[in-house]
Amino acid sequence: MLAKQMECAMAKIIYRDKEWTVQGGRPVREILEELQLNPESVLAVRDGKLINEETIVEEEDVIKLVAVISGGGR
């Protein structure tokens, strides 16, 4: 039962076909660096709203990461 409670206290990070469970209470940037993801290459979305890299990820959050796409100008 304790393992299930601890699992519920974690946040979920989803990027493409990968999913990680991480401890909450930390900024998005710190978690991205821990996962070896470049914070400048992804946008973080929580509950359908864009959040910045300073936003604290709370327990039980589900954060979806979207790749930043840039195009060249003419």
Give an account of the 3D structure.
- The chain is α+β, with helices and mostly antiparallel strands and 74 residues long.
- It has one domain: Beta-grasp domain (Ubiquitin-like (UB roll)), CATH 3.10.20.
- The protein has helices spanning 2-8, 28-34; strands at 10-15, 18-23, 26-27, 42-46, 49-51, 56-57, 62-67.
- The strands form 2 sheets. Strands 2-1-7-4-5 form a 5-stranded mixed sheet. Strands 3-6 form a two-stranded antiparallel ribbon.
- The radius of gyration is 14 Å and the shape is elongated.
- The protein starts with a helix and ends in a 7-residue tail after the last strand.
- Mean pLDDT is 88; it is low at 1-8.
List the defining traits of the structure above.
about 70 residues; two-stranded antiparallel sheet; 2 helices; Ubiquitin-like (UB roll); 7 strands; alpha+beta
Map the helices and strands.
Elements: H1 2-8, E1 10-15, E2 18-23, E3 26-27, H2 28-34, E4 42-46, E5 49-51, E6 56-57, E7 62-67
Parallel strand pairs: 1-7
Antiparallel strand pairs: 1-2, 3-6, 4-5, 4-7
List the helices and strands in order.
Answer: HEEEHEEEE
Shape: elongated
Count the DSSP helices: 2
Count of strand segments:
7
Q: What name goes with the CATH superfamily?
A: Beta-grasp domain
CATH class (first level) name: Alpha Beta
The largest sheet is: 5 strands, mixed
Which stretches are poorly predicted, pLDDT < 50 over at least 5 residues? 1-8
CATH architecture: Roll
Q: What is the CATH fold-level name?
A: Ubiquitin-like (UB roll)
Helix content: 10-25%
Average predicted local confidence, pLDDT? 88
Alpha-carbon distance between the termini?
A: 59 Å
Structural class: alpha+beta
Radius of gyration: 14 Å
Strand proportion: 35-45%
Structural domain tally: 1
Biggest sheet strand order reads 2-1-7-4-5
